[in-house]
Amino acid sequence: MLRIAVPNKGSLSEPASAMLHEAGYRQRKDRRELVLVDAENEVEFFFLRPRDIAVYVGSGRLDIGITGRDLLLDSGSQAEEIMQLGFAGSTFRYATRPGTAKDVSEFGGMTVATSFAGLVTKHLADNGVDAAVVHLDGAVETAIQLGVAEVIADVVETGTTLRNAGLEIIGKPILESEAVVIRRTGDPSDDPKVQQFLRRMQGVLVARRYVMMDYDIRVEQVERAVALTPGLESPTVSPLHHEGWVAVRSMVPAKDAQRIMDELYDLGARAILTTGIHACRL
Predict the structure, then answer these.
(1) How many Cα atoms are found within 13 Å in the side-chain-facing hemisphere of 122?
(2) Could you read off the pLDDT of 192-233 as tens digits, one per residue?
(3) What backbone torsions phi and psi does residue 183 show, to the nearest 5 degrees?
(4) What is the DSSP secondary-structure string of the chain?
(5) How far is 136 from 138, CA to CA, in rounded Å?
(6) Are the C-beta atoms of 147 and 80 separated by less than 8 Å?
(7) Residue 268 has pLDDT above 90, yes or no
């Protein structure tokens, strides 16, 4: 069986399980379950702390896993990213009191508090900065107020929490993170079971981004309409019983669907319908 690590809690957990369910895999009904066997799909799921997943995958104990890019890089494990999953996006930034520093290059001799010591230590070294790194679990916003550090490095969404603590964001982002699929570094990329899993997950990503659009239009307007709905390869165009009309079917980006419907209507298209896509293979 393919052995897959899945986050058991936190912001990664529910979106990961939802995506796996959409991909056709069984998922646990009880949060206390630590192992779930999906015999029909020949997969065994292990529900682990998100921070530990890269360690298990990197050691070869599990085949692949779902975790955050920040957690993968912070772990220092022999694991690598093989697919982006498009959820749990976050930005990792430095912050300090106004006037302390303007850029990471000015952190020399200072102390940086963070929950991602491995990631920050490497980033400082890559930038040639000699600064101490203090590891803290949980929120680090108060580290400066309590005199533990002059700088913090943490996940930033809106920046409101940092501003409320009297801090300002410094320099460029350390990292743009999101949920990713990982495997052990050096493992073969053509494993049939892994490739099947990736195709299923890719199918979910595409199904979430696109809708199927159907409409009827006069023959003389087909080329202009098809230019609006080119599809992935090309749209399906079928003659209608009523002479001079055709039916067109094409996948279009969900975010653009309403605008495309408006433009098709202006071209003379009628019976314009959109339907959700539950699964696909490209």
Answers:
(1) 10
(2) 999 999 999 999 999 999 999 999 999 999 999 999 999 988
(3) -140, 170
(4) -EEEEEE-SSTTHHHHHHHHHHTT----SSTT--EEEEGGGTEEEEEE-HHHHHHHHHTTSSSEEEEEHHHHHHHT-SEEEEEE-S-S-EEEEEEE-TTS-SSGGG-TT-EEEES-HHHHHHHHHHTT---EEEE-SS--GGGTTTTS-SEEEEEESSSHHHHHTT-EEEEEEEEEE-EEEEEETT--TT-HHHHHHHHHHHHHHHHHHEEEEEEEEEGGGHHHHHHH---SS--EEEE-SSTTEEEEEEEEEGGGHHHHHHHHHHHT-EEEEEEE------
(5) 6
(6) no
(7) yes
Which tokens belong to 94? 């430095």
Report pTM.
0.86
Among all chains, which residue has been given the structure tokens 């006069």?
A: 218
